[in-house]
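PROTEIN DESIGN WORKSHEET
SECTION A - STRUCTURE
LENGTH: 92
TOKENS:
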């Protein structure tokens, strides 16, 4: 019976060890970084796609839309903040 327990314990330990090492390095949060260190990235040392600075002008309409949305919804956000404050005051 003792041999059965030893074999069973060895099998369980082996199964846990295999699953622990199956993930390999870089499997946890903030580990591996896709194969790059903190200083390196796809564009490190000139490798990777070149940044076309003329494309920055295409972002201007998006910035204007975002600003218009922010100004259009400011009154709604203020009303929601006021309503939340009223609800919190009525509870306490």
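SECTION B - SEQUENCE
RESIDUE ASSIGNMENT:
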């Amino acid at each position: 019976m003792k041999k059965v327990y030893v074999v069973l314990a060895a099998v369980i330990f082996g199964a846990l060890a295999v699953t622990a090492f199956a993930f390999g390095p870089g499997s946890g949060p903030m580990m591996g970084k896709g194969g790059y260190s903190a200083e390196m990235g796809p564009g490190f040392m000139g490798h990777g796609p070149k940044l076309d600075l003329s494309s920055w002008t295409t972002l201007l309409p998006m910035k204007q839309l975002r600003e218009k949305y922010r100004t259009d919804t400011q009154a709604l956000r203020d009303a929601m903040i006021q309503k939340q404050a009223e609800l919190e005051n009525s509870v306490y």
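SECTION C - NOTES
DSSP finds three helices and no strands in the chain.
Residues 2-22 form the longest helix (21 residues).
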